[in-house]
Specification:
Blueprint (H helix, E strand, L loop, with lengths): L8 H4 L7 E2 L10 H10 L6 E12 L2 E12 L9 E12 L4 H11 L4 E12 L3 H5 L4 E4 L4 H15 E2 L3 E2 L1 H8 L7 E6 L7 E5 L7 E6 L10 E7 L12 E11 L12 E11 L4 E7 L5 E7 L7 E3 L5 E10 L4 E10 L3 E3 L5 E3 L16 E9 L3 E4 L2 E8 L2 E7 L9 E4 L1 E6 L6 E7 L10 H20 L6 E7 L5 E3 L2 E5 L1 H4 L6 H11 L8 E2 L6 H19 L2 H17 L11 H4 L5 H21 L8 H14 L3 E2 L1 H12 L4 H9 L5 E11 L3 E11 L6 E10 L4 E9 L2 E8 L3 E6 L8 E4 L6 H5 L4 E2 L5
Parallel strand pairs: 13-22, 28-29, 29-31, 32-33, 34-40, 38-41
Antiparallel strand pairs: 1-17, 2-3, 2-6, 3-4, 4-5, 5-9, 7-8, 9-10, 10-11, 11-12, 13-14, 14-19, 15-18, 16-19, 17-18, 20-21, 22-25, 23-26, 24-25, 27-28, 30-31, 34-35, 35-38, 36-37, 36-39
Helix pairs in contact: 7-9, 7-10, 9-10, 10-11, 10-13, 11-13, 14-15
Keywords: Signal
Protein name: Peptidase M1 membrane alanine aminopeptidase domain-containing protein
Organism: Caldithrix abyssi
Amino acid sequence: MPAPIRLYCVFILMGLFQPVFAYPTDKSDETRYQKILNDIVELQTGRECFAMENVPFERDSGKFYLKKGRIYPLSPIDDRLRAALFLGDGSFRMRPSLPIEEAELKRLTGQSEFRYNFRVLFLLFNDTTFTQITAHAQLLKAKPLRDKTKDILADVRDYLIHYDTMLDRDIAKVLLDAEENSLFYAHFYNDDRFEPYFFLISPYNEENVSFRRWSESSSHLYRKQAEICRFPVRKPNRENGPYMKVLNYDITTEMPFHSVLSDQLDYKGQTNLTTVMLRPNQCWLYFYLNQEILVDSVLNAAGQKLNFVKDDKFDYMFVDAGRTLDKGDTLRLRFFYHSEDFLNRTVFGWISMRDESTWYPRYGSREKAFFNFTYTYPSKFELVSVGERVSREQTDDMITASWSTPIPIANASFNIGSFKSIEIQEANLPKAVVLKTEKYGLTSRRNTEEEVLDDVINSLRFFTHLLGWPPIHTLYISEAPSRHGLAYPGLIRLSMLTFLFYNPGGFEELFRSHETAHQWWGIGVDYRTYRDKWLAEGFAQFFGLWYVQKALRDNTIYLNTLRQWKETLFQRESLPPLYLGTRIAEGVRPADYQWVIYNKGAWILHMLRNMLIDLQTMDEEIFVAIMRDFYNSYLGKKAGTEDFKAIVERHLKQDMDWFFDQWVYGNEMPVFEYAVHPVKWGDTGYKVYFGVHTKNVSDGFIMPVIIEIELSNGYKARTSRWIKAPLTKFEISLPMEPEEIRFNAFESVLARTEEIDWDSFKEDFLSEQADQNTEQP
């Protein structure tokens, strides 16, 4: 990794690069956040150190060994010793506590237990770590090592302070709290300071332990860390998980024209929210808010102004509660904010938001709350929102509309534009309303709103028949100036591209139906943790593709889409397992996220569907019953992968560990090399001998494969046989000569297949290690 250009002057001229604070003050009256920030910037060694020789210490799964060297206590952070620097010879080893994380560690580093020798170790802590390490060490006098440690501490700051102004969110939150906690952060390397590793224990994450390395996408102003593995602490305690919960949001949004002559819209907002503390000793709280939005003030329930920190390069902010909050305490906050750049109106008539998820101050991304919205906007536009519309009034040339959510939801959004709408109310279905932008000077296909509405209504009809009623009464489908789609409760933002163009091969139908399916998967049934994201995206992708098969009455498009996904999955070597969830998007290769969570997730349901289909009648009632049971059992709740597995096992009355271990928790990508040998048997009959090598899988891999045989009279015989690695042999008796044999018919297994010559298979077929007539596990 090339050495980045360093800007040491930023640490001398910090005043020029401070974030925007509510009340600029001199250093004697600085906020606690500013003090911690400045203390980290000014970290340095003192005149004391300790001699280290053969000193071991550990934090959860991370084991450190200081073979020989010196450890220097660094200058205080917020008047406490919280950082130290070791220079010398040391080592680190770590084995994750979860098997899936151990496999991920090996995939990314080649080691099941990571071992690494270092010469530099920086420690940041919020407990008695330093006392523990130096309990039996010799105290030495030392000269300050400013010249020697300048580059080291500059590297440390680069990873803790982003763009020289904003503390890392998780680190800042822990340091700002009013109690001692389990924060532990290690930054270490051997000879190349530009390729460090990191070991972090953060008390506010549900999975507290994180092992990381440098990220190749870093810049000299924002040094990123790429996560290798993450897992819970071995001994969970009361510190795990979120520290507060927002009970309700009351959001007022005004969008007037910027000026009389301008078509651009300003953005002004006020969010009132009520929170309850889930943990004691909370002082500073963080919220997400888009970097383009400027905060004017934050008030408490008494109208007192609170200190806050908001930087224009990041989508989060910190608020000083003004007091120490105990577990169970409630806090009411009022945020006032504005932006001239958050909304952008294009020459073609679209109005885009900088970001659909951070348009109001929010805590977390998965926590549900009640929402009330009040929107004020020019009467020439129309607006749709999540929730149900309560009122709509026009005064002069402005409209004020109120919306409310009848149940708690996790994500909220709206869409505004020059829309023309078309709607349909069909019996036993939610009402569907499609809003298409009236464009200016841009050619659009005619009646695309009707085309979109047809796919949405047909999807609603199909999914309601399969699963039951979704948790909405009206579904708004609005054209949005983006290249992707987003689904919210009762609202879908569909890309403008699906209104402008038509891609053959089922692409548009899949895209529209996928977003519609989210009303069941992701909204009706929410996913429990970041690892379970496939229960939303993979399920929606499969149901969207299933709709394509039914709507277009075309099995070829359905199977060709699966084949295209399969080939890409095989081409993307060393894929992460599905159960890493959203971390795939934050990892070493973020582009894998779409292929694994969406497409491989859909493939898993497709394989389950093929396993359960009646090959004689092609009846799919067992699979449909499983999906219906899962949906209705967890409607309005959060479900995990194990919950889905339990439903499958209940219907099949058998253990399904083998299936989920291979495809969800593991990362099997089998290659079947098979040979067939038809032999005449009797007067008219035939026997077909099969031999299958299974490669690129773990020991014990097993999977049923569908075989379709077309006979000389045109009849098609179908059967399913269990294939076990590494070698399987079996035979099939037929009443007449086979015309064509299709191994892995219907793409029944996510696998590459290659037919090989029977002559090269004879010895394997006769081998004692082959399993004859492999039985179901």
